[in-house]
Amino acid sequence: MERIDVALIGAGRMGQVHGGNAAAQPGMRLKYVVDPRADVAAERAAQWGAQPATLEQALADPAVGGVLVCSSTDQHLAHALAAVRAGKAVFCEKPIDLDLGKVRAAQPEFAGARFVLGFNRRFDPHFRALKARVDAGDIGRLESLQLVNHDPAAPPPGFIPTSGGLFKDFTIHDLDLARWLLGEEPCEVFAMASCLVDPEIGRLGDVDTARTVLKTPGGRLCVISNTRRSGYGYDQRIEAFGSAGMACAGNVHGDTTLALTGHGIAGAPIRPDFQTRYRDAYRAQLDHFADVLHGRAAPAVGYADGVAALVLAEACQQSVRSGAPVHL
Ligand SMILES: NC(=O)c1ccc[n+]([C@@H]2O[C@H](COP(=O)([O-])OP(=O)(O)OC[C@H]3O[C@@H](n4cnc5c(N)ncnc54)[C@H](O)[C@@H]3O)[C@@H](O)[C@H]2O)c1
């Protein structure tokens, strides 16, 4: 298969995941790594057979067909727009940006753009299987959802100020999952939140523990449980309840071995972090971006999904501030 050159913008935690996958993707050649941390850019570029570059150098290269935006969240829109303006296909990590007004103002520029947004959970094989069952009517008419999304530990403190806070950074995955599974846009949001895990997060003006309830016009309900601390791994579960049954996707364990003794049952822990739990999802997401890059597919998740999830995240923040439900 022909390989199309791509550039990676941002070589931090997520850049490492996507850079490695891009370097191994048969339809892509990772040509440039862009990061203001010159030592990190050089090290990663050497690791993947690429070269460090500035954003301007990478975008000016006509051989570069695609850009992977993995920079800090407050840079996403600027980097994605620069790449769209340069005619590149863009994969952009979530959220699309922190500022809904700026994102909406950029709508004309995204019209027709090849833009894939990094809501990786839509590409997870377990969650896809659950959605296929729900869509096939296996549990009858979907009535409610429970989403559990618990981080094993808080991100590094340096990440918090540019992250947008718990709802725009973390809950946003669940807000997108809810939209994807419910089949109706939520019209009402109620959220409560606390800072229980790390006082430093509170000092930075953020929260680390939240419960969110969404309601759709048809009355479907979704409850989202979030925390930045679990103590037992990266807890990622979905329960979908319908008129004829329920479908659930549980945690993925290191292996399936169980030891049953007089003391009880012992098994392998669940996957410890996002890198290991969603390894397959990140690969499938990059495979999808390769299809978009080669003109074989239209983006399965893009600008409109980014806006809709951000609207819900802002409603969560507003609900926490006011203590009341927000009607959309
Ligand atoms: N989909 C997921 O599961 C998932 C998981 C974690 C993070 N993320 C998202 O990925 C993005 C990056 O998060 P992270 O955890 O990798 O953060 P990080 O802080 O580890 O990495 C961000 C990188 O961007 C670089 N950067 C900052 N400004 C830049 C610029 N102007 N040009 C180029 N690079 C720049 C930083 O130097 C750093 O290397 C965030 O938006 C986050 O929301 C997604």
Task: Walk me through the structure.
This protein has two domains: 4-121 and 281-301, Rossmann fold, CATH 3.40.50.720; 122-277 and 309-327, 2-Layer Sandwich (Dihydrodipicolinate Reductase, domain 2). Helix content is 37%, strand content 25%. It has twelve helices and 15 strands. The strands form three sheets. A seven-stranded mixed beta sheet has the order 12-11-7-10-9-8-15. Helix 1 links the parallel strand 1 and strand 2. The model has no long low-confidence stretch (mean pLDDT 97). Nicotinamide-adenine-dinucleotide binds at residues 9-15, 34-37, 40, 70-73, 75, 93-94, 118, 120, 159, 169, 274, 278. Nicotinamide-adenine-dinucleotide is lined by residues 9-15, 34-37, 40, 70-73, 75, 93-94, 118, 120, 159, 169, 274, 278.
Order of the strands making up the biggest sheet: 12-11-7-10-9-8-15
Total strand count, please?
15
Mean of residue pLDDT?
Answer: 97
- Uncertain segments: none
**Total domain count:** 2
Tell me what portion of residues adopts beta-strand conformation: 25-35%
CATH top-level class of the largest domain: Alpha Beta
Q: Can you give the helix content as a percent range?
A: 25-40%
Oligomeric organization of the protein chains: single chain
| Bound ligand species | nicotinamide-adenine-dinucleotide
